[in-house]
Structure formats: structure tokens, C-alpha cells
Amino acid sequence: MASKTQSNFHDFLPLMAEKLGGDGLIGELCNGFQLLMDRNKGVITFESLKKNSALLGLQDLSDDDLRSMLKEGDFDRDGALNQKEFCVLMFRLSPELMEQSQFLLEEALRQEFKDSEFSLDED
């Protein structure tokens, strides 16, 4: 998904997480899923994403970008995104939120293991 549109992307997910908390953020992601999904199929298809993407300010994305988004999140390879796949994709597309999540996980593990040397880094 390396297009010129991507460079204009502003990641609001960390701000939303801060303002809404975990449950509120998940609720908003579910609302976003509802906006983009095909009502008859209950999943986000290429057609429903293309039709409804303007609702989220994504009207400038090309068909290739939209297909890439679907492919990136489609873990079961059925050609569509279910709600879980969509939420996971949104987290994966937010580098700052992923960094915060890793930091919080490491902190929790440090506490669990009494501040011993612990890191999730693969170095």
C-alpha cells in the first residue's frame, strides 16, 4: 500500500485509545466496521469498502490500495474482513499504538517476573 495517499495518513488511533480507553476504542472500531461492511454478508468486501470508504475519509484510495488493505487483514483468506480481522488490522496499521502496546506488555511481564531482565525484542 505504498501510495502517495499513505504519506498523508494521520494515525488517530493512539489519541482515541487515550481518550476513550480500551473498551471505548474497541466500540469505535466496531462502529467503523459496521460503516464499511456489506450489510447482506456481514463482512467488509472490496465492493463495500470501495462504496463506503468515503465515510471514513478514504475516498482518494485507489482500487489497488483498497485490495491491499483487504489482503493485509484477511487472515482466513476468504477475500473479506470479518470484525476481528478488521480490528486487528487497525491496530497493526497504527505503529504508535503497537509500540505502546509492546511497552505495556513488557512492563506487565517485568512486574510479573519481579523486574528481572525481560524483553520482547528479537535481537
Automatic annotation (TrEMBL):
Top-level taxon: Eukaryota
RNA-binding in keyword set: no
UniProt cross-references to InterPro entries, sorted A to Z: EF-hand-dom_pair, EF_Hand_1_Ca_BS, EF_hand_dom, KIC/PBP1/KRP1
Record keywords: Calcium
Range of residues in the leader sequence: none
Full protein name: EF-hand domain-containing protein
Pfam family, one: EF-hand_8
